[in-house]
Amino acid sequence: MKFVQGTSSCDGFVRVFNIDKQTLIKQLNVITKSNDIETASSLVKLDWDKTDQILSIPVKNTIHFYETDKWTRKKTYENDSIDQVINLISYSPCRTLFIVAYVNGQLSIVNRLTFDIFM
Predict the structure, then answer these.
(1) How many domains are there within the chain?
(2) pLDDT value of position 32
């Protein structure tokens, strides 16, 4: 089994590492650069959809979903009713839902497959 870890950084990159081999697998230049974590527009807490092998990355007011075999963006989530930057995405333990947290404190609970919003 391959163990991987994803990180986001103030330099604008999301990096994915192979923990077993201690190597960089992929580097994506997708987030807003910032000089300081305190002044960054978002925390950019990413998460993995282990069911479909998808890396989910908050990018401004959207979430980009990347297939981890080819590193192509598979889809994008955006809630048109909320015009706020997304801080984090987190998948539920049942893996059928994900939670989106916005910088203003709002939360959305979303179906992983259909993007229907429950709350």
Answers:
(1) 1
(2) 79
